[in-house]
Amino acid sequence: MSNPTDPTEVLLELLAKLPKGLGGSIELLLGQMDEQSAALTRLAAIPHLIETTLLRILDPGLSQETADEAYEQLSALSIVVATGEASFIHDEARVYLLSWWAKPERANAFRDTNRRLAQHFEDVAAKSISIAAAEANRQRIYHAVAADPESGFPMFEQYCREARYRYAFSDCRAAISLVSELELLLSVDQKLALTYHEAKLHADLRDWEGASALLETIANHNDVRAELRSLALFRLGVVNFEQRKFDSATGYFKQAMQMAEADTSLHYQLPRIREGLANAYRELNEPTAAEPLLLKSIVDAREREDVWTLTSVYHSLGLLYRKRNDTKQAITAFNDSLDCLRDAGDRVREAQLLLTLAGAHGDLAEWDESEKYVRESVKLSKDMGHTANLARGYAEIARIAYARSSKAAKSKRQALIDEAVESWRMAERLLIDVHDWYGAAMIKVNLGRTQRRLTRIDEARALFLGAADLFARADEQAAEADARARFDRLEGEAGLPWYVWLLLVIGTLFGLLMVIGLMLE
Amino acid sequence: MASKIDRLLAEFVNRETEMASFVKLLDDPDQNVFAIWGDGGVGKSYLMAKMLHEVSNRNLPRAEVLVTNTRNTDYLSIMRKIRDDLGSDQFFAFTDMVNFFTVPQYELNINIEGGSNVSVLRSGKISGDAQVGDVAGVIIKDVMLSDPRPDRDVPDEERLTRLTDAFIDCLQAMDAGGTRVIFLDAVEKLSDRTARWLWEELLDQVRANELISFNFVVCGRKEPSLHRDWQDAASVHELKSLTLEHIKQYLERRGVPGAVDDVAMALLVTSEGNMLRLATAVDGFLKLKASAGQ
C-alpha cells in the first residue's frame, strides 16, 4: 500500500477483506464509528422502531440530550428508513444484525435488552387504547419471547387463542409474523407449535391448501411431540372433510384416534376426533360405522360437562339420522343440540340450527313447525347481522310457502306463491349484497324452475339468463352452461301457453275436415 | 441541514426508465397501476421517494401505506390509512360502516342514496337500527377499534365485502376531483388474503375503469402475478442492480471525488450493485474520510 493513511486505499483494503453482501458493508460502517455509536447501532436492530425513548431503554446510560443526538446520527444512516411516521432499520440490515445478536456470547446482553423492552411495551400498552394498545401488546410479547422463549412463548400462544376467539384474525397473524422472526431462538417444539397456530389461522380463513401444507409439516416431523402430532392429524381430517375429501379425512381421523386412544393424556381429544370420523363415515354412506362413534362421544362429553362438544355431536347425530331418512330421530337430536347451544349462548349457530330443524320438519311436511323455526332463525340472523344466514332463512320461507301452495285452497294459492317468489327474491338480493354470486345464482335457478312450472315462461327465461351471468361472475363454468341450457330450452316455449296451441291445432284440423267434407259433397 | 429525504433525492441515480413510465402513467387515463418489484435493498423505497417527490411537485393528493410486521396491515387498516391521508371528511359513509362493524351498540347514521343494489344493511331494513340522515350534516369519527363488535356476529367475508363496497363508493364520489396517487410499499408482507383483496377487490376497480382518477403504485419484493386482463391497466417494472456507471455517478453525488474508478469497481464487487449495500459502504467510507480529516 503506497499510502497507508489515504482513506481511499484504506477503503480498498477493507473492502478486499470484508465479506460481500450487506454484512460486509455494515461491518465497514460500524468499524468507522466510535465504540458507543457502533454498539448503539447494533442495539437499534433489536426493537422494530427507532425512537429516542427506545434508545434510552437500549442504552440506559444515555441522557435525553445524548439520546436525541444519537437519534439524529442514526437517522442519517442509509440502513435506517425514515418515513413520515417512524424510523426503523431496514429489514435486510436488521436480519444481519439480529444474526450477530444470536451468537451465544451475546445471549445475556440480548436477553437483558429484550426484558427492558418487554417491560417498556407493557407500560405503553397499559396507557394506550384500541389499535395502539394492540400493537404495543404484540411488541411486548415479541420481546418477552426474545428475552426468554420458555416463559414468553406461552404468552404468545395465549394471545393467538384469544385473538382467534375474538375473530381478530389479523391480530393473530401479526403476532405470528413477529414471533416468526425469532425462529433462531425457538426450540423445535416451539417452532412446530408456531406452525400449528399458523395452520389454525389458515383454517379459520378457509384457506385449506395453506392449512394442509403446514399441518403435514407438523404431522410428518420426526421430533414432534405426541399431542401436537395428534392435533395436527385431527385438523388434517377437518381440512380434508371441508374439501369433501372424505376418504382422506377418514384416514387422518383414524390416525389421530389411534394416537389419542394410546395415550391417556390425549384422551381429551377423543370426543372431537370421534365426531370428525363419524361425519366422514356419514358422507361416505357408512352410517353403521358412524353412529356408535357419536354415541360414545356424547357419553364422554357429558362426563366432562363439555357443552360445546355436546352441541356439535348432537348436531352431527341429527345429520346422520336425517341422511338415513330417520327424520323424527334427527329432530330429537337437533333439539338436544339446540338446548346445549342456548346454554352456550352461540346465537349464530343457533340461527343455523333452527334452519336445519325447519328443514327437517319440512321433510315431514310439518309446515307449521317448520315455519316457526324459520321465523325464529330469521329474527336471530337479523339481530346478529348475519346476511348469509338471513338469506338462507328467506329461501326456506320461500320453500315452505311454495310447498303449502300446492295443497292450499284455490283462493289462497296465489298469495302463497307470491310470498314464495318475494322471499326468494329477498334471499337473492341479500346474497348479491354480500357478493355471494354463486348463492344468488342458485336462488335464481330455483326461482326460474318455479316460474317455469307456473308457465311464466318469459320470467323463467330472464331468471335463467340472470343466473348464467352470476355463475360466470363466480367463475362456475359448468353451472353457467347448465343455466344457459335451461334458457335455451325455453326459447321455443316463449309466447302462448300450451293449451292455446292445442286449441289452435284442434281448430285447424276441424276446419280442414270441414273443408274436405264440403269438397266431397 | 437538508432533511434525509432531500439528501436521498440529491443522491438519486438510475431509474430514469421507471420514472419516465411513472410520469407517463400520471397523465394516462387508461393505465393506473404501477408495480415495482425487486430484491431487498435494490432501491425500491428510494424510487418510491422520488415518485412521492414528483407527486408532491404536481400538488397531487396522495396516500402512503407502508406494510410492516408490527402493525396489523389488513384490508381495513389499508383503507383507513388511505382515508386518513386523502381526507377523512370524504369518507364519512365508509367510517360509519367501520364503526357499525366494530363498535358495540353502534347504529348506522348514514343512509346512502343511489346505487343499483338493494343494500339491506345501508337502508337499515335488516336491523331496523339505521336512521336516515342528511349526509351533508353528519360528521362521523372513527372510533378506531378493529375487533368485530361482540353484540353481532357478521362473518368476516361479509364485513370485507361491505366495507370495501362502502370505501369504493366514497372513492368513486371523489373520482371527478382530479388525479390522486396511492402508494403501497412492502406489499410482500401482506397476508395472502389481504394481497388477494388488494388486487382482486380494490385494484380491480381501477382495472375495470371504475376509479379513473386514482393511480396506485405498488412496491414489493415479488413480481405481481397478474391475469392478462391487467395488460393494459398495469405497468410492471423489475428493478435491476446498479451498473458501474451508476455507482460512479452515485459516488460523485455523495462527494467522493478522485480515484473514483478503483473505488467504484471495488464497491461494485462488494455491493453487487445493490443500492442499500452500496449506500451503507459509502456511509462507512465517508466516516473513514472524516476521521482522517478529509
Q: How confident is the prediction overall: mean pLDDT of chain A?
A: 91
Measure the end-to-end span of chain A.
135 Å
How far apart are the first and last residues' alpha carbons of chain B, in Å?
A: 20 Å
Strand order in the sheet with the most strands of chain A: 1-2
Q: Could you say which structural class the secondary elements and strand pairing of chain A correspond to?
A: mainly alpha
Main beta-sheet strand count, sense and barrel state of chain A: 2 strands, antiparallel
**Major sheet of chain B, described briefly?**
5 strands, parallel
User: Radius of gyration of chain A from the CA trace?
Assistant: 34 Å
Q: Give the largest interface.
A: A-B, 75 and 72 residues
Low-confidence stretches of chain A: none
Rg of chain B over CA atoms, rounded to whole Å, is 23 Å
> What is the topology, as strand order, of the major beta sheet of chain B?
2-3-4-1-5
| Range of strand content of chain A | under 5%
State the share of residues found in helices of chain A, binned by percent.
over 70%
Order of helices and strands of chain A: HHHHHEEHHHHHHHHHHHHHHHHHHHHH
Shape category of chain A: elongated
Secondary-structure topology with pairs:
The complex is a heterodimer of chains A (521) and B (294).
Chain A: H1 7-17, H2 22-31, H3 35-43, H4 52-58, H5 64-75, E1 80-82, E2 87-89, H6 91-101, H7 107-127, H8 130-147, H9 149-165, H10 169-180, H11 188-204, H12 208-219, H13 226-242, H14 246-262, H15 270-283, H16 287-304, H17 307-323, H18 327-344, H19 347-363, H20 367-384, H21 387-405, H22 410-433, H23 437-453, H24 457-473, H25 477-491, H26 498-520
Antiparallel strand pairs in A: 1-2
Helix pairs in contact in A: 4-5, 7-8, 8-9, 8-10, 9-10, 9-11, 10-11, 11-12, 11-13, 12-13, 13-14, 13-15, 14-15, 15-16, 15-17, 16-17, 17-18, 18-19, 19-20, 19-21, 20-21, 21-22, 22-23, 23-24, 24-25
Chain B: H1 4-11, H2 16-27, E1 33-37, H3 44-57, E2 62-66, H4 75-86, H5 92-102, H6 120-123, H7 156-174, E3 180-185, H8 192-207, E4 214-220, E5 234-238, H9 244-253, H10 260-271, H11 275-291
Parallel strand pairs in B: 1-4, 1-5, 2-3, 3-4
Helix pairs in contact in B: 2-3, 5-7, 9-10, 10-11
